[in-house]
Amino acid sequence: MNIHAVRAIYGFEMARAWRTLSQSIVSPVLSTSLYFIVFGSAIGSRITEIDGVSYGSFIVPGLIMLSLLTQSIANASFGIYFPRFTGTIYEVLSAPVSYVEILIGYVGAAATKSIILGLIILATAGLFVELEIAHWFWMLLFLVMTSVTFSLFGFILGIWADGFEKLQIVPLLVITPLTFLGGSFYSIDMLPPFWQTVTLFNPVVYLISGFRWSFYEIADVNIGVSVGMTLLFLAACLIAVWWIFRTGYRLKS
Amino acid sequence: MHPAISVKNLSKRYDSGFEALKNVNLEIEHGEIFALLGPNGAGKTTLISTICGIVNPTAGSILVDGNDIVKDYRAARSLIGLVPQELTTDAFETVWATVSFSRGLFGKPANPAYIEQTLKSLSLWDKKDDKIMTLSGGMKRRVLIAKALSHEPQILFLDEPTAGVDVELRKAMWDVVRSLRESGVTIILTTHYIEEAEEMAERVGVISHGEIILVQDKTELMSKLGQKQMTLHLQERIGGIPGSLSAYSLDISDDGEMLTYTYDTHGERTGITALLADLSQAGVKFKDLTTSQSSLEDIFVSLVGKPK
Description:
The complex is a heterodimer.
Chain A: H1 3-19, H2 21-43, H3 55-86, H4 89-94, H5 99-128, H6 136-160, H7 164-180, H8 193-199, H9 203-216, H10 223-247
Chain B: E1 5-13, E2 19-28, E3 33-37, H1 44-52, E4 59-64, E5 67-68, H2 73-78, E6 80-83, H3 95-105, H4 112-121, H5 137-149, E7 155-159, H6 167-182, E8 186-191, H7 194-200, E9 203-208, E10 211-217, H8 218-225, E11 227-234, E12 250-252, E13 258-264, H9 272-281, E14 286-293, H10 296-304
């Protein structure tokens, strides 16, 4: 194991986060705070409790998930796309590093940033609404698994993209709708039966449901199913990455 | 002892169908400066990129000091430093950070003293805390060299190191290369500036259309293929070459004041004595005489321009 290389890549990516602090931490925290003020306090005060939880508290897990997903993807995809774009990737490709080490460096850093961000948003939420976390272990597990999975997904996106537009289009056109329709702001049994069934094809539902369960013990789907679906998506991303590295897809000609 | 680099039957065909390298065989010895010479698009960068692991070979094998670049990629790549042709740098990083990053990436523990020494030898020390984006092109090139040297490689690839670099900096770069060589580093440089190969290299490989068409000791190459020209400055203008001299390969200048005789240095007879005797017999007198040897450039053009 080339531990120095892992540390170098990881450190490089973390340094990038510090350099762009306003973009990587401040702006997601600010936008999430706005959600809390608008939906949690202003509108939320007119909405009745959902399953015994006040609306402001109800949306916290979904909002954290929303940030985790978008930031994991944005961070990891940019982290690998930018060196490809500028050409500095030559150095990583010519270095005595294995693909696993490259992956740990880039995805590890992106996931770390997401986890830190998630915890900051959680703390911020505590300022606006009342929070209780029933299962700390599961909450952290979901936080870590989601960050890793979607950082992997972002890594794949950053390798697939051949322009900045593609880099933006997936988060905007796929991830944001899936998250909004994934029960961030509502419980899916508030939907008509037909749409409840449709929603079950949305993988984000399982993430948000499981995460919310770890807070309030209320869930749209069984917690076991949530964990299973998350692991399934993680496995799918790992297989995709394995294939990318095996073939050198868009990395080596 | 293994050669520093050993390339066997290497071919590279890109997905587009373009054959960048055709059955290339090449051995580079430890401690030499080897120049890979060829016009743009000849396959120089593809060859280097393949050896360094950036491009996958289609066929053939490459050993770096006996280590296969696929099977023993860690050992092989640890020995190599690569200075790419393009000025690809992390614009927002500082010089110090980017060079330290390279060292780590190549698996070496941090060594600030060594990096300090490297930066000083490249006159980058006072720029160490500057962001790369603020540096001039020549300075960026030096940063790339510092990055390539950061892990103390035994073999250094310089892909067009002096492209777009002014004369002064080019000379400074050559000094750096020479001092590296003295420290035992094997250096492979690609260039399409002949003067660079002529100035720096001990051996020259000429590549054209993906094929190595010649590998030879530089001085040997130049003397073997070199043609010499003797120019005679005449005392009086002549209207044309006298008929009695038509057997010689003579050219007359437009103003009729100079005659140029081209001859092969490795021929048994250069024909100079006979020419001079015939000249005086024809009554042609000259006031001065100069000879010049053809440069690597002339040799190169005659090789690459050769119809197939």
